[in-house]
């Protein structure tokens, strides 16, 4: 008697000659091999449920595990090691399979969106290859499960103090002048824009859930999320280095990691500190003759060391010496190390070569300026937090005008929100232009297909004439496709208009080029970063 392949039970056929191709199993997987036993012709016979031909039986846990391993193995072969470890490994699991769909679980809503948006085609292909039939993908998150609330004891005096301070900050004078009101607005804006104090306290409001993910930061988000789930030697990235310009989310991710570790591993000792504060502690330790206590605090008592703005250690020889030994001891013990900077390790002048080498031991990731869609998403989320209603045209104006820093982007909303609150007015596009000094910016920087072509050619160092030519050189073709993509996305040109500008007989090649770049962006390749850079400089 033939034993059915697990998925055969879902097949609907009145023919007894139905043939199913078994899994192409490259591994000696006993569980998978036991799923089917071929007859003399090596064709497994489908077996239906005894009650009804279309009834569905559930897989056993062992079968689900074996199929999950085979699907993940297929995905691992289809993706680069870095992408697989960052986005798939330990983040994607099979929950159940039925006759028409496979249900996959992810650890959070943010991870689910990244996997669904960027890797659905590869996952679908892997599932089809393993199961021998096309299935619909359904993604769910582990966050949907009910969590037991955690209560922390809060000192009553602290609550009273905080409450009185908060209420005082919103209390107006009896007869405030217009200048008083404007000063109040400016004060809120400056408090937001200024860098935080060197002494860092973990901010419970900075989490992965309220971090906006886009092409410019998705790898940094995935890596830090992985660290929060499995810090130290148990995880994939025991040493992580993130660099970018100021105000692009590095510090937010540090706090998000700290909050994630506190939630999942509350027993671990976390030290989140700025490089400047680290130096002050060392100076005080020298002065008070307590160097031993300083060394024990970091080398023996710390499980997770996170230092913000590590480049501040440049030209500080004594501090670098102590940091070198602390790094070595923590790394040898398998502790978690995370550093942020405004430069890549090798670009920091005044840092010893041996330290540069150690900072490069782990994963080094950069965060670029966010693209237009990400900037708009950030503004919408921040406006919602501030309970501030703004028309889409106002959000688009701010997003297209402020490109260099997320902090400045959010600061614009802080100013508008404070104005609406303090002066009791509604914000329209004209008022936004006046308050943020954006009048005329959107007109003076109008983007056309010509400006897109020139900016793309300049970035890739390809003459405009070559970009518009019929050349099939690989570099030129790739740059041309990027220009087509940006012309469609930013300028809003039609495929026919783009084809005409680039002297193409029909627009089918433009469609192909646009789709190719779209797919590369979803995969998080270098092209996605090129596109963001060019767009931010238009």
Tell me the distance between the termini: 69 Å
The appropriate CATH architecture of the largest domain is: 3-Layer(aba) Sandwich
Whole-number total of structural domains? 4
Strand order of the largest sheet: 5-6-7-4-8
Please estimate the helix content.
40-55%
Q: Could you say what the CATH topology of the largest domain is called?
A: Rossmann fold
Q: Which structural category fits the helices and strands?
A: alpha/beta
Number of strands: 8
Count of runs of 4 or more consecutive helical residues: 23
- What global shape is seen? globular
Summed over residues and divided by their number, the pLDDT gives a mean of: 78
* Sheet with the most strands, sense and barrel status: 5 strands, parallel
Ranges with pLDDT <50 over ≥5 residues? 1-57, 145-175, 193-199, 440-444
Give a verbal description of the structure.
By secondary structure, this protein is an alpha/beta fold. It has 4 domains: 6-144, 2-Layer Sandwich (GMP Synthetase, Chain A, domain 3), CATH 3.30.300; 218-366, Rossmann fold, CATH 3.40.50; 372-442, Helicase, Ruva Protein, domain 3; 449-536, DnaA protein, C-terminal DNA-binding domain (Chromosomal Replication Initiator Protein Dnaa, Chain: A, Orthogonal Bundle), CATH 1.10.1750.10. It is built from 23 helices and 8 strands. The chain has helices at residues 30-33, 61-78, 81-88, 109-131, 156-169, 178-193, 218-229, 250-264, 275-287, 291-299, 317-332, 353-359, 372-385, 392-401, 406-422, 429-436, 441-444, 449-460, 464-467, 474-491, 495-501, 508-522, 526-536; strands spanning 93-97, 101-106, 136-141, 239-243, 270-274, 304-308, 336-341, 363-366. The strands form 2 sheets. It has a 5-stranded parallel beta sheet with strand order 5-6-7-4-8, with helices on both faces. The chain is globular.
């Amino acid at each position: 008697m033939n034993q059915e392949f697990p998925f055969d039970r879902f097949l609907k056929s009145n023919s007894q000659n139905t043939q199913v191709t078994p899994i192409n199993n490259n591994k000696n997987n006993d569980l998978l091999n036991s799923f089917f036993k071929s007859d003399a012709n090596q064709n497994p016979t489908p077996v239906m449920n005894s009650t009804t031909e279309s009834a569905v039986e559930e897989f056993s846990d062992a079968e689900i595990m074996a199929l999950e391993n085979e699907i993940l193995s297929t995905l691992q072969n289809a993706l680069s090691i870095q992408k697989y470890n960052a986005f798939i490994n330990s983040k994607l699991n099979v929950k159940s399979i039925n006759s028409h769909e496979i249900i996959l679980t992810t650890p959070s809503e943010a991870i689910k969106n990244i996997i669904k948006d960027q890797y659905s085609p590869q996952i679908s292909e892997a599932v089809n290859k393993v199961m021998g039939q096309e299935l619909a993908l359904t993604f769910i998150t582990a966050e949907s499960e009910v969590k037991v609330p955690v209560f922390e004891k809060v000192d009553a005096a602290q609550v009273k103090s905080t409450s009185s301070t908060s209420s005082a900050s919103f209390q107006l004078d009896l007869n405030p002048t217009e200048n008083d009101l404007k000063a109040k607005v400016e004060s809120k804006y400056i408090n937001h824009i200024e860098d935080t104090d060197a002494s860092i306290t973990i901010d419970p409001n900075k989490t992965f859930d309220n971090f906006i993910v886009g092409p410019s930061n998705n790898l940094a988000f995935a890596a830090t999320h992985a660290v929060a789930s499995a810090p130290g030697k148990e995880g994939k990235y025991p040493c992580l280095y993130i660099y970018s310009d100021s105000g692009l989310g590095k510090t937010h991710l540090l706090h998000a990691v700290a909050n994630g570790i506190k939630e999942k591993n509350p027993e671990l000792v976390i030290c989140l500190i700025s490089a400047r504060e680290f130096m002050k502690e060392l100076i005080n330790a020298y002065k008070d003759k307590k160097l031993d206590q300083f060394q024990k605090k970091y080398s023996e008592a710390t499980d997770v060391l996170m230092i913000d703005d590590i480049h501040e250690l440049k030209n500080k020889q004594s501090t670098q010496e102590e940091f070198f030994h602390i790094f070595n001891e923590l790394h040898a013990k398998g502790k978690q190390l995370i550093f942020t900077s405004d430069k890549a390790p090798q670009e920091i002048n005044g840092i010893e070569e041996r330290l540069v080498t150690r900072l490069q031991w782990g994963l080094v990731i950069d965060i670029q300026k966010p693209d237009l869609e990400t900037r708009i998403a950030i503004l919408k989320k921040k406006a919602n937090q501030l309970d501030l209603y703004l028309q889409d045209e106002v959000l688009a104006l701010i997003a297209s005008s402020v490109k260099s820093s997320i902090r400045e982007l959010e600061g614009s909303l802080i100013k508008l929100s404070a104005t609406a609150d303090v002066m009791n007015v509604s914000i329209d596009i004209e008022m936004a232009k006046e308050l943020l000094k954006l009048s005329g910016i959107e007109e003076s920087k109008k983007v056309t297909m010509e400006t897109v072509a020139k900016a793309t050619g300049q970035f890739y160092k390809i003459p405009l004439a070559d970009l518009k030519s019929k050349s099939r050189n690989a570099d030129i073709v790739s740059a041309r496709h990027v220009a087509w993509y940006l012309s469609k996305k930013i300028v809003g040109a039609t495929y026919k208009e783009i084809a005409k500008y680039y002297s193409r007989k029909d627009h089918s090649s433009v469609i192909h080029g646009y789709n190719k770049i779209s797919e590369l962006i979803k995969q998080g390749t270098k092209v996605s970063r090129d596109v963001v850079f060019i767009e931010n400089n238009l």
